[in-house]
Specification:
Arc Repressor Mutant, subunit A; three-stranded antiparallel β-sheet
Length: 253
């Protein structure tokens, strides 16, 4: 079962940046512990299937059991998970992410969704994380995000307001900088969408499909473009109104 909370105030910072496969494994272990506790801890086969699952995942992955086993061992050495059955029985794995991240159960649900899907708007994140823990509305979510930001576990990619986009802070410094540049670039959404999605090979020769620009980035840039059009339309209307009022015909009237 998915049990265990701890005094996060007293816990030391233990987390560190993770690879894409390590992040996926961590997210899957939390998700399955919360949504299907009877099937948790997970065997290597179940964990691999969870990593390659098509729903609630971004990007989609096609990892081999060897890829997952190698990343599991790396996470075990970091203290983020453990093997709970061995010997003659099938090995199973459970996470130590409450302690490793220093979070409570609702904060862990939010982190799991960010690990599984990457950057999201706050509204999307609330809906996604609510399948693991009850998060009634954005007013409930915001204090949780404030706590995670204070622990340096999340990063705000866009300014506060409607459609604000956030992500986790378990990327490498280089990858996080790339994300920040993407959101600050201001390139048109359709220009980005026309770029072919690259394929990235994992160490075991299997593929990870990066589907190009993520939905939150596209939504954010569409919102920026829409706001710019609204400002131009408003300015044009004001100019026309001023021109009519100041014209000789209008003055003579």
């Amino acid at each position: 079962m998915d049990t265990g909370t701890l005094d996060t105030e007293k816990s030391e910072k233990r987390w560190r940046p993770l690879t894409s496969i390590q992040r996926r494994i961590a997210g899957v272990l939390v998700e399955k512990a919360k949504t299907t506790p009877d099937a948790y801890p997970l065997t290597l086969n179940a964990l691999t299937n969870g990593c390659n699952q098509k729903s609630n995942r971004d990007p989609h992955m096609d990892l081999s059991a060897e890829d997952v086993e190698r990343a599991v061992e790396e996470l075990r050495e970091m203290g983020a998970l453990t093997e709970v059955q061995s010997g003659g029985r099938v090995a199973k794995y459970r996470h130590y992410l409450y302690e490793w991240l220093g979070v409570d159960k609702v904060e862990l649900a939010v982190m799991a969704e960010l690990l599984l899907r990457g950057e999201q708007t706050i509204g999307e994140l609330r809906g996604h994380a609510a399948r693991m823990e009850p998060i009634g509305d954005l007013n409930v979510l915001r204090p949780i995000l404030d706590s995670l930001e204070a622990k340096q576990l999340i990063v705000m990619l866009t300014p506060p307001g409607r459609g604000q986009v956030i992500t986790h802070n378990l990327y490498t410094a280089e990858r996080l900088e790339e994300l920040k540049k993407q959101y600050a670039s201001g390139r048109p959404a359709d220009e980005l969408e026309s770029t072919p999605a690259p394929r990235v090979r994992s160490g075991g020769g299997t593929s990870i499909r990066n589907r190009g620009t993520s939905a939150p980035i596209r939504q954010y840039r569409r919102s920026r473009a829409s706001n710019a059009r609204t400002r131009r339309t408003t300015a044009c209307c004001r100019w026309r109104s001023t021109s009519v009022m100041s014209s000789p015909r209008a003055v003579g009237a």
